Amino acid sequence: MGLVAIIVVLALLQYVALGLLVGRARGQFGVTAPATSGHEVFERYFRVHQNTAEVLVAFLPAIWLFAIYVSTTWAAALGVVYLVGRFVYLRSYVRDPSSRSLGFGLSVFPILVMMIGTVVGAVLTLV
């Protein structure tokens, strides 16, 4: 479970770092709080941070449950794919939002695999 805990902390640190990027973009593009719009590049950073919060809600329970019912090693490996996906999503979305598909897929695919795997693993414990 140690590897899974490390991946979870890295995911949380990544989320915090994205929030810091939003703050930096606020200053860089003159978007004062509480505004959430005003400059297109700021809005891209803001959306990346918000989208990460949206998928993090699914990622966190998925990785823990998958580690419990299926495999801690595979949970950690899928967690690494998620982390890389979030980084790719950030880079592509800020550059050109229409190019975000790969990063989004690399983020959501491991979550779906872990959810499905958890259901299968949980059902097998009942049988």
Report on the architecture of this protein.
The chain has 127 residues and is mostly helical. It has one domain: Four Helix Bundle (Hemerythrin (Met), subunit A). Helix content is 85%, strand content 0%. The chain has four helices and no strands. Helix 1 runs parallel beside helix 3. It starts with a helix and ends with a helix.
What's the layout of helices and strands?
Elements: H1 2-29, H2 40-69, H3 72-95, H4 101-126
Helix pairs in contact: 1-2, 1-3, 2-3, 2-4, 3-4
Provide a quick synopsis of the model.
This protein is mainly alpha-helical and 127 residues long. The chain has helices at 2-29, 40-69, 72-95, 101-126.
Average pLDDT works out at 97
Helix coverage percent:
over 70%
CATH class: Mainly Alpha
Oligomerization: single chain
Keywords:
4 helices, 127 residues, Four Helix Bundle (Hemerythrin (Met), subunit A), mainly alpha, 0% strand
